[in-house]
Amino acid sequence: MARRSFSFLLARRYLNPRRSMLSSFSIISLVGVLLGVLVLVVVMAVYAGLERDVKSRLLGFTPHILLTHHPLDPASPNTVNDWRKDSGPAKMVTGVDAVAPFVSDNVILDVDSTQKPVMFQAIDTEDPSQVERITRMLDRDHYPDSSADMGLDDRVVISSTLAEQFGIGVGQTVRLYSTRNFEQVMAAYKITEKPPVRDAFAEKWKKANDLLSQGWKKRGEADVIPTATLQQSYDLFHEIWSERIREPERQLLQDVLDTMGEAERDEANGTHVFNKEQREQLDQSLAELGKTDPDKMDGETLKSLKEVVLPKEALVVGVYQASQMTLTPEVFMPLTLAQTLSGLGDSVQGISIRLSDPYKAGEVAKELSARMGPEWRTLTWMQQYSAFFSLINQQRMMMYFALSFIVLVSAFSMMAVMFTVTIQKRREIGVMKALGATSGQIVRVFVYQGMILGFFGAVLGVGLGRVVIHYRGVLQDCLRQLGFDPFTSSFTGFTILPAYNNPKEQVAFAFLAFLLCSFAALVPAFFAARSDAAKSLRNL
């Protein structure tokens, strides 16, 4: 115990040779460690705060689990017709907090003849919790009149990025063009380039009509035709009906097929019997198909598109604070408006599942898959943003790696200082060895110095780092008054940088600094202990 006390007391004496203040060497080493730990604590706390707020923002509008319908029949639509009924089994799963309809698509936003494609997401305005989540995102600092009260009308909440780009404010009106409509327009224009069915499918058209005209026979007041002949003609007309043709011609062909299907079948004679009205209806439909006017049909087709491509005018009732760090929908709108713009009618694209604990989404998704059946698929928020979160994790590791070098540089600086101290104390080291001090005692003298400086530097670094984090808003305001703002709200989405103090992480930073400083002092102490006492006394 006495030997240890001797080394520790001498280490303290070397740190404070005048007993009034620390030596310059000690101050330089202490400040180096302090600054290294402070930077590591502040940067990683801000980074953790940004990550947590980004996740919170994403979870504010993103489904924790998205249920989508994929029928076993490929011809059936993937939409959900009655989401309230279909979501019944999902509500029974443990951990499910709420269910809601999901619609997300893109539209063309038009403001004063300036257009831009934007993503939108539907909000069930009858669900107060969904409205509340959008309310918490509103940018009331720059747009004090912002509201998330969209009701069932054509009202929308847009991102601050969109508002700044187009100069839109609360109370202004925007036009929304559905991209689904443009698909219909393009399809209609392509159809107008085709000739009528009698010319476009001349061979099938002639063969089907010839089969009918040659197969008819009179039986009293009725007309009969062999079933095989009728079937051949029906198949040819159906092949034409299945092609991309003008809607008026499709309707006439449908009338032809319906009339053929209504005929009475005579199993005994292998024929189909048409009464007088059926035969007249069939001849009339075929006659109209044979003399259709392409120009007239095209005019009616394009005229009917006026209702399809007319934009929806929506009132901007709120602006939410967007962030370049998070991919968010640029427009939030009521469910009814979203269904109209997506061409879904009363259907939705999927069912949004919200959980009491979003981080258990994987476990709940497995149970949902088993309960909902093979026609339903699940997509968790972790899967949806896996690439994004993988990038965040990689960035965090790079930050740890890069910032740890600051502490490492501080340790190397301490090593250089300790080498200088050992050189200055060579004569004293020689005296101690001549008086019987062991090499271990000499080593501990300088190691204790490194440990003391490392301990207090790490503790002060963590403490000052937490102070800087606490007053980060004040520091940001000072920087802004000087005309320098490295963390603009338009980029981060936050007026004050978010931060999160992780005590375990900060203790780990302090312990790392302490170990590095102790090791940095060990190297020069080892060389000092190996010096020859006689040479040291001669100051060689």
Automatic annotation (TrEMBL):
GO terms for biological process: lipoprotein localization to outer membrane. Residues 26-182 form the MacB-like periplasmic core domain. It is found in: Cell membrane. One of its GO terms (cellular component) is plasma membrane protein complex. Pfam families: FtsX (PF02687), MacB_PCD (PF12704). Keywords: Cell membrane, Membrane, Transmembrane, Transmembrane helix. InterPro entries: ABC3_permease_C, Lipoprotein-release_system, MacB_PCD. The chain crosses the membrane at residues 21-50, 397-421, 442-464, 507-529. It is a multi-pass membrane protein. Residues 401-530 form the ABC3 transporter permease C-terminal domain. Belongs to the ABC-4 integral membrane protein family. LolC/E subfamily. This is ABC transporter permease. It comes from Luteolibacter ambystomatis.
